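Example record used in the benchmark description.
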Amino acid sequence: MRTARLRTVHPVLWAGWAALAAGAVLCVLGWYGVSGERYAERQLPYLASCTVPGAALIVAGSVLLTHGRGALAAARVEELYGLLVAPEPVEAEESGTAAGAPLAVSGDLLMVPGGTLWHRADCPLVAGKVESVPVDAKLLAGGELGPCPICEPVEETD
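Model output (structure tokens):
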């Protein structure tokens, strides 16, 4: 998914490179013309017609490249931001699950040592973590652990 702005940046970069190349060619031609002349009054036409415009093209090409690369970076950031805030697909609603339903449904409760939440075993926050341990009943009774807002575990009462 490329944005329109991302496509318009490439001509600016190509124009910058073309201006740099043309400027370099003009500077070389001016230098070659000046080097063949002994007197300063005969060197001035080469400076005026080749070297000065060549230097101006080099500066213009540098500005275009700098602007083009900055615009390219800005376009990429905008594209990534668009992907970040894109609405989620509606597949969950089509499959029949409610939007507010918990992600995990396991009855086993786990916690991470030093953590402040308790989770279902299949909660995405603790699933596959080797440091997760079964919930200590003393911590639950003392109120030191709170339920995970992602998997919404229910405290087991025996």
